[in-house]
């Protein structure tokens, strides 16, 4: 398995990559909003139960499966483009992988925060949590510029 191993399937695989990226990002834009509403509803057991269920469904059905698919297909594209052979001109991909790694860390943090909220624990202030909501948009902007423009 090396550069070019995807052969004629390359463009289909890249299309699948972008499709799962859209699913993952859709989840990453909605999920933090759920956390804000959940935290503002703490103290009302019916409201808390509703958000806990919604977060669990979003995590299980969209967020986690989409992230796994983006990584698996993305790494296949990375092998296809010659990452394992150390081909020149892939600095954009190295930088992209770093930002995607950080975004995956944010994903993990948000899932952990949701589990804390399910126990009625709020770690950040409402304002702090709203600020954290902006992280995925910033990350996506950087990642897509790196992936499409390939500036270095
Ligand atoms: C999870 C780790 C990821 C890896 C290993 C990865 C790897 C890659 C590779 C190697 C390509 C280039 C394929 C080529 O042109 O031959 C690519 C394309 C692309 N990736 Fe990713 N990617 C990942 C995550 C993401 C994420 C999170 C986003 C967006 C938020 C993203 C957006 C894109 C886009 C838009 C393209 C198409 C670029 C173009 O055709 O010009 N990728 N990815």
UniProtKB/TrEMBL annotation:
Membrane topology: Multi-pass membrane protein
The protein's Enzyme Commission number: 1.3.99.-
Residue ranges the record marks as coiled coil: none
Record pathway: Porphyrin-containing compound metabolism; protoporphyrin-IX biosynthesis; protoporphyrin-IX from protoporphyrinogen-IX: step 1/1
A single cellular component GO annotation: plasma membrane
InterPro entries according to UniProt: HemJ-like
Catalytic activity field: protoporphyrinogen IX + 3 A = protoporphyrin IX + 3 AH2
Record's keyword terms, sorted: Cell membrane, Heme, Iron, Membrane, Metal-binding, Oxidoreductase, Transmembrane, Transmembrane helix
Subcellular location: Cell membrane
Similarity field: Belongs to the HemJ family.
Role of this protein: Catalyzes the oxidation of protoporphyrinogen IX to protoporphyrin IX.
Quaternary organization: Homodimer.
Name of the protein: Protoporphyrinogen IX oxidase
Organism: Sphingomonas mucosissima
């Amino acid at each position: 398995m090396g550069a070019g191993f995807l052969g004629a399937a390359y463009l289909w695989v890249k299309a699948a990559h972008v499709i799962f990226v859209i699913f993952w990002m859709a989840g990453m834009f909605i999920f933090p909003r759920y956390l804000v509403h959940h935290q503002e509803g703490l103290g009302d057991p019916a409201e808390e139960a509703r958000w806990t269920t919604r977060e669990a469904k979003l995590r299980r059905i969209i967020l986690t499966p989409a992230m796994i698919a983006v990584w698996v297909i993305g790494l296949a594209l990375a092998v296809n483009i010659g990452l394992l052979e150390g081909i020149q001109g892939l600095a954009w991909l190295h930088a992209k992988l770093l930002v995607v790694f950080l975004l995956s860390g944010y994903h993990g943090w948000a899932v952990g925060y949701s589990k804390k909220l399910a126990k009625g624990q709020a770690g950040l202030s409402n304002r702090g949590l709203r600020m954290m909501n902006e992280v995925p948009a910033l990350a996506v902007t950087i990642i897509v510029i790196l992936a499409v423009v390939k500036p270095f």
